Amino acid sequence: MYFLFQSWFYLYMINVYSDSSQTALKYLKDTEANINNILIMTGDFNIRNSIWDLNFLYHSMHSNLLTDIVDSMNSCLSRPTNPVSSRYLDNRNNSNLVIDLMFLRQDLLEFNNHIIYPDWRLSSDHASLTVSITIIEEHIQTRKHTLVKNSKEEEEFIKELTKVITKLNTENISDKEMLEQTLQIFANNINRLWFKYSKVVNITKHLKVWWNNDYHRDLRKYRISK
Fold it and tell me: In this model, does residue 111 exceed pLDDT 90?
């Protein structure tokens, strides 16, 4: 039995080897409450079953234990795009096996099904399993408008904004349409003043003077949950 845990922003990838006594599965079952945010679980599970091996006609009782563990991790069995054997035996009288499996987190759309590469095994009797993770293109803003605190520009912005609020006509708001028109006029004035007095700066790590542990915690939650 062995595990390899790799953490990436508190999302975990587990590489499992479970012996013929299923020691690893029993350990995972006993500790499932302490294992969260599993992204990928893969490895040699030493379980033959008709669910993932069409050449095997029987159902293993160990697969029930594996299914319970996978369900508790909010994961599901990945189907290979090329359903071939994953373990190759030297004895030609025995058939090759499908005992290397991959389980992927259910609620992530960035995964596709995995691929089995028998040609990559070289001297090993196990084929390699790979999965591609799609990286979504993201626009990163490098410049922004800002008002320097306690600057002359901030003082003028507040002064003119106060005039805009004072002169805002709210007497004729009698329905939803008039309310939306009034709010749009107000928003246009704010936008005009903002671009009049703010200046463009490059975004760098030195700008985040407001950053604290609460923002760090929320960013971490966002990265985990998306």
Answer: no
Q: Are 35 and 12 in contact (CB under 8 A)?
A: yes
3-state secondary structure of 79: coil
pLDDT exceeds cutoff 70 at 74: yes
- Compute CA distances 158 → 29, 118, 163, 200, 209, whole Å: 61, 69, 9, 18, 22
Task: Please tell me the least confidently modeled range out of 50-64, 70-84, 140-154.
Answer: 140-154
> CA 175 to CA 189: how far, in whole Å?
22
Cα distances (Å, whole numbers) of residue 143 to 72, 121, 146, 158, 193: 44, 49, 10, 23, 19
The answer to whether residue 218 is domain-embedded is yes
Q: Do residues 20 and 80 share a domain?
A: yes
Q: Is the pTM of this model over 0.85?
A: no
Residue 155 lies in a domain: yes
Task: Give the pLDDT of residue 121.
Answer: 87
Which domain CATH number covers 49? 3.60.10.10
- Regarding whether 166 and 116 lie in a shared domain, the answer is no
Quote the radius of gyration of the chain (alpha carbons, Å). 29
For residue 76, being part of any structural domain is answered with yes
Residues 215 and 124 in one domain: no
**Cα–Cα dist 152/164, whole Å:** 19
Question: Taking the chain, what is the end-to-end CA distance rounded to the nearest angstrom?
Answer: 33
- Please indicate, yes or no, if residue 18 is contained in any of the structural domains: yes
Among 25, 20, 30, 33, which Cα is nearest to 3's? 25
pLDDT reading at 32 higher than 60? yes
